[in-house]
Task: inverse folding
C-alpha cells in the first residue's frame, strides 16, 4: 500500500474571544444609542466624562450621514481619549416606532463593525439591568434614573446622558457583569 503524499491537515487555533469583562486596559465607553446619543467614558487615568452627541439629520443630509458621523466620532474619541478597551451600550429589544428601530439598528451595525475593526470588546446591557442597577427597580422611569445618577454626584443634561452614566457605573462596578 502506498503512503499518501498529502500533507497532514493543518490545525488552526483561534484566539479566545475577548469579553468586555476581560479588558484590563484602555478606556471604558458607555453609550445610549439614539438620535441623541448619550455617552460616558472613563479614561485610563480614571477620569470620567460624559455628554450627548446629536446625530440628527439635516434636510441636506443623505440617509447615511448620521452613521458616518457616529463612526467619525468614535475615531476621534479613540484618538483623543486614548485607546478604548471596552464599549458597553444599552441593548434595546423593543422600540415604540419603526423609525427608531431602524435608526438603532443602523447605529448598532456601525458600532459593532467599528469595534470589530479596532479589536475593541463590546457588550449590550439590557435596559432592565441598567435601571435595576441605578434605581433598584428594573422598570424605573427616566426621572428615577436621572435622580439616581445625580445622587452619585453627576449632572446629566438629559435622560440619554444619565443612561450612559448608569451603564458606565454598572460596567465599572460589576466588571462588565462579572461579579
Result:
Amino acid at each position: 500500500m502506498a503512503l499518501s503524499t498529502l500533507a497532514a491537515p493543518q490545525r488552526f487555533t483561534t484566539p479566545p474571544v475577548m469579553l468586555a469583562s476581560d479588558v484590563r486596559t484602555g478606556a471604558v465607553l458607555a453609550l445610549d444609542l439614539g438620535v441623541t446619543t448619550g455617552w460616558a467614558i472613563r479614561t485610563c487615568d480614571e477620569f470620567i466624562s460624559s455628554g450627548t452627541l446629536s446625530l440628527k439629520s439635516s434636510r441636506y443630509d443623505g440617509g447615511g450621514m448620521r452613521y458616518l458621523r457616529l463612526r467619525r466620532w468614535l475615531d476621534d474619541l479613540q484618538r483623543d481619549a486614548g485607546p478604548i478597551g471596552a464599549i458597553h451600550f444599552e441593548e434595546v429589544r423593543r422600540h415604540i416606532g419603526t423609525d427608531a428601530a431602524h435608526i438603532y439598528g443602523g447605529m448598532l451595525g456601525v458600532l459593532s463593525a467599528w469595534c470589530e475593526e479596532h479589536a475593541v470588546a463590546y457588550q449590550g446591557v439590557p435596559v432592565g439591568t441598567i435601571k435595576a442597577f441605578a434605581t433598584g427597580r428594573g422598570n424605573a422611569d427616566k426621572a428615577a434614573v436621572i435622580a439616581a445618577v445625580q445622587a452619585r454626584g453627576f449632572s446629566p443634561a438629559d435622560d440619554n446622558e444619565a443612561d450612559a452614566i448608569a451603564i458606565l457605573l454598572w460596567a465599572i462596578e460589576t466588571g462588565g457583569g462579572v461579579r
